[in-house]
Amino acid sequence: MSQMNVEQFASELGVLPTVLLEQLQAAGVRKHMTEDSLTEKDKTQLLEYLRKIHGAKEEKGRISLPRRQTSEIKKADSTGKPRSIQVEVRKKRVFVKGDLTVERKTAETPAPLAPSAPPVRTPVIDAAQQALRQEEARRQAELIARQAAELREKRLREKPPVVEIKEPEEPATPPAPVAAPVAAPEAVPVAPETLSAAPAETVAPVEAEAAPSQPASTEGTLHKPAVKPEEKVDKKKKPAKQVVWKEEKVEKRGLKTRGDLTGAKGGWRVRKDKHGRTEEPTPHAFSAPTEPVVHEVLVPETISVGALAQKMSIKAAEVIKALMKMGNMVTINQMLDQETAMIVVEELGHVAKYAAIDSPESFLADTEIAPSELKMEARAPVVTVMGHVDHGKTSLLDYIRRTRVASGEAGGITQHIGAYHVETERGMVTFLDTPGHEAFTAMRARGAKVTDLVILVVAADDGVMPQTVEAIHHAKAGKVPIVVAMTKIDKPEANPERIRQELVTQEVVPEDWGGETMFVEVSAKTGQGIDDLLESVLLQAEVLELKAPKDAPAKGIVIESRLDKGRGPVATILVQSGTLKRGDILLAGAAYGRVRAMLDESGKQVEQAGPSIPVEIQGLSEVPVAGESVVALTDERKAREIALFRQGKFRDVKLAKQQAAKLENVFEQRGEVKVLSLIIKADVQGSYEALAHALQQLSTDEVKVNIIHSGVGAITESDINLALASKAVVIGFNSRADAVARKLINSAGVDVRYYSIIYEAVDEIKAALSGMMAPERKENITGLLEIREVFRISKVGAVAGCLVQEGLVRRGSLVRVIRNGQVIHTGELDSLKRFKDDVKEVRAGFECGLSLKNFNDIQVGDQLETYEIQVIARTL
Hints:
Elements: E1 4-5, H1 6-13, H2 17-26, E2 37-38, H3 40-57, E3 62-76, E4 82-96, H4 102-108, H5 127-158, H6 206-210, H7 229-236, H8 247-253, E5 296-299, E6 302-304, H9 305-311, H10 316-325, E7 335-337, H11 338-347, E8 351-354, H12 362-367, E9 376-378, E10 382-387, H13 393-401, E11 418-424, E12 427-433, H14 441-450, E13 453-459, H15 466-477, E14 482-487, H16 496-504, E15 518-521, H17 530-544, E16 547-549, E17 555-564, E18 568-577, E19 580-581, E20 585-588, E21 591-599, E22 608-609, E23 614-620, E24 629-633, H18 636-670, E25 674-682, H19 685-696, E26 703-712, H20 717-726, E27 729-733, H21 739-748, E28 752-755, H22 758-772, E29 776-793, E30 797-810, E31 814-819, E32 822-834, E33 837-838, E34 841-843, E35 847-852, E36 863-872
């Protein structure tokens, strides 16, 4: 093999040439320059040196078997709730081979004092075997050199503190230099008798043996050769001090085996198993974290104070303290809403994230059939009629349905969502008639959510009104196409061109003007343009290509719901996909049940309803919230579980919101905010939602409407008792009190008001709130007087002779005494006289005498300013 220099060999090993030079010199190879050539003997000597270093670091013949055990214990947390804790016990068993190292035997035998070691005989081998051994030695040298370089870098990075360990002094004997063998040394078997000796390793580094030219230190002992200062640092990096004791000293020292090779700690003997093998102790030490631990806290919609503290691994008192600083007085079991809990988590230095609750509702997603597996069929369009109040929406549908619905609504205005499906010559169309009054914004938004098309009704004699603009916004927000129906076109004052111009300003451009919106002139009285309107609707529906699966579990939405006295909870449902059959198990929000009966809009019994068909069902457990999604399930137990979960979640959210409002109520009471408490009962849910929304908008900074209870159905005895306890006014909207409640009303004198039109209810509550508001006080200055003379009269006091300069002075007026431009007294006139006669008033330019009530410190030159306070009633 060709020779190479130090630099080439270093590049081949992947280490720095200077590092390799240091290793060569430590191994006894005299190389000083990177250009010096290396022989195979030099490489073998380096390999032997590196092997000794490597062998000193790792003990051969040791096998470690880690073992992990997991158990679970039950323990109560700070809130008293049972909590399961996972405990993991890690054990490591070490098996030591039955042969020891050569150094141990040589450590027990004193080294000879001869200056030179006897020559080592080289075994007689042939040239081929010699070449193979040299090649193997070279490869091993490369590997070990690379490991040595990494070890050196690691030592330089760590640099632990140097701790001196004093040992018993013995006569120092310098170790004899050992010549490096040419070939790799073979393993030397060790007698098994040596296993009874104390386990130890020599602490002398191999560098001392590899460099015999270095003088030995006088501090060396027979069993512990001298160590260089830099080698002491390396010795401290070892995990445990390794010392070889004489047998007689072991007997004397007894249990003093702390820190030896066996790993005994605290002065105790090492534990052994039944086979005599050493067992290493399981580490149980806990080191406190040096930095604060930041937890990622998943916050659900509602969470108790104790549960939130447990998620952050802190005491509940810390969370309560943080909430008190924020102004919330809470207890450990109190529910917090999601927003408040996330603020507390961030305040305490942790990261808050919205939690995805592992709820039973995931069952709905699992049972949902993929759309690709369903057969899609064409369905009828769902058309919502929108527009301003009294613009003729219901009358237009009347003509289409050939019925009279508007006359049945109170006041002639629609206060419920009417859902009808109409069979025409061109196909079936489902119509939703929404109210036009501003209070029914939520109902209109609900209609726009489920609709495919919007017919925007605008009266040709009235024009675009606020609710018309709002309906346009709802349609655009839902990305629903609009068809404009200009009604009342038969009236002489109708002006369709003005309607077009006003709608263009709202970005509704007719097709005649280059837009995309179809405009149709209709009359619900004469029937003009009705066929054109239906044709436009069906044409727009064909463009949309409306499809839905028919042979699938039904899905839909609650259009309206109410509590019927004879039938129980009743809900109007619009089926959006699938087929709803009588007997199906329905889940509608927090309500569930089996469909006992299905009626169409005319009150006829039906057995099933397909897509785009509105039906009225009964059989639910409670009145569902209008706008909730409806799904048909096959498992009644699962439907009940999901409904109960939703009820609990709704209850927790409601309690958390009420708690968040308590602090606000405290501040309102401090500011003397007057509250009008109301209990609202209505015939259908959409009506009480609209009425509650309209009444709550009347609240101001001084007066507030507080709806403590609202519901669907008749006014019951419990409603009257609640009104008695909370001093509330009961409002019945298309709802009456039952017989028991009427007796209680008469005996207790509860204020109960009945309404059938929303205008009247809003106006009366507005008047009541206006009467509760503090009146406005306005000050009017009536006169200005100057004191010309002051008379002191016994039993009367000081009387001022004055000249009225401006206005007039009335008896009993409020007065201010002004001296040198400053008000020194504010009071009331006690008497007013002119020429010894009592008078009611004195006008400007006349003199008078007067006295002030409870004030006599008047002087000549003072000015008196009379004024009166005018009380003005305020309105909303």
